[in-house]
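Thanks for the sequence, V.! I ran Peptidase C51 domain-containing protein right away. Repeating your input here for the record:
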Amino acid sequence: MRQELGYKEKNGQFTKFGQWYADRVQDTQYRNGPWCDMFIAWAADRADLSQYVGEFAWTPSHAAWFMKQGAWTQKPEPGALVFFDWKGGKSYKGIDHVGIVEKVSGKKIHTIEANVDRIWLKRKTRETDKVVGYGIPRLVKASADKLGEIRSTERPFVPLPRVDSGQGSPLDVLGTPPALLTAMVLMTVVLSLRVTGRRRGTHRRLAWPWNAPTTEQEATPAPERVTIRAKAPEKTSHPRPAPPARPERTRVPAAAGTRPPTSTRRKPYEPG
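Predicted structure:
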């Protein structure tokens, strides 16, 4: 890592660290992006320490990763990653920059930082008033080693020995599972044959060995039954009597020159 001190970004903010990270994540936009954290990811990969340092390009996400690992502190030490907020905030969401602590001198820290003074990879001496916190790769490694030690002491699952109660199961007479499967198949075939022998409204006995006739009398088919139904008496229809004839009315013709009497209705205003 120290061999890279003095590296300067190319035109368009292109760096070999950004190119490496872009190839790593299959995203070309990182070739010309801010490269302070991508340089740390590149250096950790060269030292085979990526699992303890992390590989990030976005500094707030990198700080959150250390917090999740339980490796976040406010006390600097050599080898720690220092995260800055140039506005003086103390929340990881406002982090702008990251570097590597090389040495601690009282209230000052000596760092190696990339993308500093806009284009350089160089050493810097910083005050701690802009520091948000420190990520400690040493604590990440200790947690991983402890977890690996716990997993190495875990014993594989061993089933408990089977206790024989002395009482056998009724299925033990069938022997092994293949024998049990064979018995189930035979039972299914027998039941299917019994079902196919049924017809609608009748039951036909199949010619099984145990149903075969034993004598000639049993072998002779029984005569068919003839059912004779009594014939219902025929219905006779009787003609209905004709209704009596009505007597005809005789009309008497009026005499010539006469009119039939008519009723005269008195008007209400005429005297009686």
